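Sequence and structure are kept together here, with a separate record for every protein. A complete record is shown below as an example:
=====
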Amino acid sequence: MCTRCLWLDPTKPDYVAYHDNEWGVPMFDDQTLFEFITLESAQAGLSWYTILKKRQGYKKAFHQFNVKDVAKMTACDVSRLMDNTDIVRNKLKILATINNAQAFIKIQGEFGSFSRYQWQFVDYQITVNNIKSKEDYPATSEVSVRFAKDLKKRGFKFLGPTTVYAHMQASGMVNDHDNACFRKQEILDDWQHIDIKERVT
C-alpha cells in the first residue's frame, strides 16, 4: 500500500485521485492555472474538499475556465450563477472570478503568459519543503506574501498569502508532499532534469 500525505482522507477516492495525479505537479498551462486560481479563491473560508466536489460545476459555470470568456461575463451572468447550486453561491466570489479573469489577461499581455509571471516568484525552481508531520506544513511563505501582494496590486481579489500558498502547492511551485509520501520523490525524479524556465518561455 502506498504511503500518502498526512492531510489526505484516504476514504474519499476523488480526493485520493487529486492528490495522486495533480497536487504538487508543476503546471505551466495558463488555462489550468486560471482554473486553480478560481478554485482556490472560491475556497476562502471553506474546506478544499468542498470545492473539489464542485469542480465540475465550476467548470460548466465558468466556460470551461476559458479566461477570455469569463472576463466577458456580465451582471446577468452573476445573477444567474447566484441560483446555481453547483458552485458556492457567494456574490463577492463570483464577481471576483470575473474580475480576476480580467486581471489575468492583463498579466498575459505584459509577460506573455501567466505561467511566466507566476514562476518568476520562485526563480523557476521547485521549492521542496521538509515535511515530517502535520505541524510542518506551512500556511504561508515569504514568497506567497510577496506573490499575493503583487496580485492585489494588479487587482486580484480573494487571493491573500494563505490562498496563494495553497495555489503554489497545487501548481507545483512548492513540493509539500510528506517526506514519506510516495509522490514526493516521484515528482522530484520527473522534474530534476527539466529546465522550468524553458517550459514557461
Q: What stands out?
A: The mean pLDDT is 96. The first helix runs from residue 13 to 21.
